[in-house]
Amino acid sequence: MDIKEILIEDFYYDLSNEKIAKYPLKNREESKLLIYKSGDISHKHFYDIPEILSKDDLVIFNSTKVIQARLIFHKKTGAKIEIFCLEPYEPADYEQIFQTNKKCKWKCNVGNSKKWKSGKLSCDYHFKGKALTLYAERITTDNNSQIIEFTWENSNFSFAEILETGGETPIPPYLNRNSEESDKFRYQTVYSKQKGSVAAPTAGLHFTENLIKELHNKGINTSELILHVGAGTFKPVKTKTIDEHKMHTEHFIVTENLITELISNLNHIVSVGTTSVRTLESLYWLGVKLENNTNLNNFHIYQWEVYKLPAKISAEKALNNILKYLKINHKKYIEATTQIIIVPGYQFKVINKLITNFHQPKSTLLLLIAAFIGNNWGKMYHYAINNDFRFLSYGDSSILIP
């Protein structure tokens, strides 16, 4: 069967509302851990992960940081308008836009948009004892999003500070609750660094600083990449076949040092989360594209192109192609975007083990799990349901070893 003809209804399971974790456990590492190994399934706790991994494994974290992406405005009529900042528009660079101190433009989703027909919205804040008024103006539309220009007169404050103080944590919609102060800390990994995500790389929420130290004490190496997780990660697949679903684009950064580490540890790569999977697998395909075009300008992986590209070169060769490109161009990291969709039939090129939470029925993330372990995904999820595992972002975890 053609991969694009995969029926999304084949990836449905019954997820009752009481199985969805509305809040995280008090202690991150005490969540349950399902262990899938060559078809066998058992479970322990997440704090057992150092004993399950091998000394020669390289564990890859996504060190993106969730921004307080929801801004609430009120019209003079009392109507509440919610502006959800999705990704930078002008300047388009994440680091630059957070440093702006008078104005910037974002690609946004707007809640209750019908009540905002025209004009500027405003909201008053108090930062460090000083008053600040933030204005929002709708400039244009971009596909299904709206371009919003934010302006403020007090140049002592950056947009990063405005979001941090005035924004709300963009917890997933399926939690069916408002964000709380505790979410600012708990909907964030302990190793988060680079601001840019509007959704957490939730597989990493279970790690504590002590647990990472335990990994290192055992001789297990860790490294980091950055993929800024977009709101599209929650986008349900509403089409009959996967071919009709449009995959969202996400931005990632991988350093020269990480690529060197990957080459030295091939066949022992442990991805923490599906975001790391998408990045690492996209790296391989960028290396394939560089094999035939050393002057490649478009560092983007399109949704279906990896199923058409030649996959004759090894992961080592593909990654070395990227190192060669970086050296020639005097760069220390590669920056790219990816729309890669990983579905059953995909042949993994870089990752060997996967640490991940439990995903929604009929989601692209569940398709990725099915691609990694085959039809046993159903057996795995049935086991989790019968053993009272907690599901989705704040839920329990699993380690998959095909």
Assembly level: single chain
Which of globular, elongated, flat, extended, rod-shaped describes the shape?
globular
Low-confidence stretches: none
Q: Order of strands across the widest beta sheet?
A: 2-1-18-17-14-3-12-13-16-15
CATH-assigned fold name of the largest domain? QueA-like
Structure description:
There is one protein chain. The chain is of the alpha/beta class. The chain contains 10 helices and 18 strands. The protein has 2 domains: 281 residues, QueA-like (3-Layer(aba) Sandwich); 99 residues, no CATH class. Helix content is 23%, strand content 28%. A hairpin with a 2-residue loop joins strand 8 and strand 9.
In short:
With 402 residues, the chain is an alpha/beta fold. 23% of the residues lie in helices and 28% in strands. It has helices at residues 49-52, 94-99, 159-166, 183-186, 209-217, 256-264, 274-292, 315-328, 364-373, 376-386, and strands at residues 32-37, 40-45, 58-62, 64-66, 70-74, 80-90, 103-111, 120-127, 130-142, 145-151, 194-197, 221-228, 250-255, 269-272, 300-301, 333-338, 353-357, 397-401.
